[in-house]
Amino acid sequence: MDQSNLKPPAGATHRKKRVGCGDGSGHGTFSTRGCKGQKSRSGRDLRPGFEGGQLPLIKRLPWTRGFVNVAKTQYSIVNVGDLKSFDPDSEVGPESLVQIGLIKNVSLPIKMLGGGALDRALKVKANKFSASAKSKIEAAGGKVEEI
Question: For the chain, how big is the Rg over CA atoms in Å?
């Protein structure tokens, strides 16, 4: 079946609106343009965002520089020096960090940083470790485990 010859059923198409063709057209006198004003004139050129001479929205907004990386991972930060409150040879995980008050909740991943000094052996579980944090924990006789 050749589809190039198919016509829509009768009554399914509308005639083109004929504006500017006199009062008998049903769109006479002002040809659907209203009365006076900028939009009624021929040759009008209103660019997108033009607000009639008012300072446009794009110019009213403060300039923002750079961009926001929406894919950035936010971490709960814990320094190695903050782990002194744990007993020697204990296991440090997200739940124990919340109990002691070093992080607020376990919804964000945890990153251990190397700030401060550690004088006891601990088994530390976190999502990420900086190189200095890893070396300080292992130098104190502890173990590092990424979860």
Answer: 36
Q: Which residue has the tokens 């589809």?
A: 3
Strand partners, 143: 123
Asked if 97 and 80 touch (Cβ cutoff 8 Å), the reply is: no
The 10s digit of each residue's pLDDT in 31-44 is 889 899 888 888 87
Domains of the chain, by residue range, sit at: 76-146
pTM here is 0.54
CATH of span 76-146: 3.100.10.10
Could you tell me what percent of the chain has a pLDDT over 90? Answer: 45
Strand partners, 110: 76
Q: Tell me, what amino acid is at 4?
A: S
Give the Cα separation of 105 and 93 in Å (integer).
12
Report the DSSP pairing between strands 91-92 and 123-126.
Answer: parallel
Q: Which pLDDT score, from 0 to 100, does residue 145 have?
A: 92
